[in-house]
Amino acid sequence: MLKLQNISKRFDDKFVLEHINLEIGTGEIVSLLGPSGSGKTTLLNIILGLTSVEQGKIIFNDLDLSNVRMKDRGFNIVFQDYALFPHLNAYENIVYGLRNKKGLVSEEELHDYIDFLELQPHLTKKMGELSGGQKQRVALARTLVMKPKILLLDEPLSALDGVIKESIKQRIKSIAREYKLTTIIVTHDPEEALTMSDKILIINQGNISQFGSPQQIIDHPANDFVKEFILKQLEIKRENIYHLFGEKYA
User: Fold this and answer.
1) Cα–Cα distance for residue pair 203/201, rounded to 1 Å
2) What is the pLDDT of residues 112-133, one digit of tens each?
3) I need a surface site. Which of 25, 38, 48, 207 has the fewest CB within 10 A?
4) Angle at which helices 107-116 and 132-144 pack, to 10 degrees?
């Protein structure tokens, strides 16, 4: 379990996060949702260890990681732009991080990840030969082979659309279920959060507006900001929401 206890952070004497308290269970998919500048990416970077915590604690499986370096936390991130190496092929990108981690995964495990993400036909292709969805799957495979304790995703669907976007949504959900992998997603899109997550943390101006399941947030928005931010999107994206929440919201 991941626990954030009273997390606060300032930049230039301005609080971007204030008194964030949160518990995420093993294997849960949690979206950090909010408008641009709300503090969600800062919170993701604090969990990763890329940004230092100013106040509060990060507890993972009863260990205090607040002052533990990023490389020693065992959390891994898939960045918004995938951060793949264009001069390497798909297979070389996937195994790149294993160069200094000999024995971390067996050949059988490595190919299980490749097969799970249906990347076998694309292993010898360079990045310029892959679609956006294929690049996203390569980035996911590269992260999974490192056996992360928590998977962090920064706007994983922002560069995708249509069928590819829906396919990657299902892949992410399948990864969390198959590997019991706690997954934290940053998104500004309420429809993505509602259709992908077990729970959603809605952040506004550095504060928690609501934390709960998609159904709880839809049925019982905690305040006017949540109601406006979520329900306006429901009006825009009725079709996808209908499949999850029924006729009431269509």
Assistant:
1) 6
2) 999 999 999 999 999 999 998 8
3) 25
4) 150
Q: In what order do the strands lie in the sheet with 182-187?
A: 75-78, 150-154, 182-187, 29-33, 199-204, 207-212
CATH of span 2-74+150-249:
3.40.50.300
Polymer length in residues for the chain: 250
Q: Give residue limits of the domains in the chain.
A: 2-74+150-249, 75-147
Q: Take residue 139 and report the two structure tokens written for it.
A: 């980035």
Backbone angles phi, psi at 8, to 5 degrees: -135, 150
Place of tokens 């000999």: 102
Residue 62 and residue 51: Cα distance in Å, rounded?
Answer: 21
Give CA separation, 122 vs 14, 73, 90, 94, 109, in Å.
47, 31, 7, 11, 18
Give the tokens for residue 115.
Answer: 């097969």
Helix (H, G, I), strand (E, B) or coil at 208: strand
Amino acid at 60: F
pTM (predicted TM-score): 0.88
Task: Look up residue 1 and give its two tokens.
Answer: 């379990």
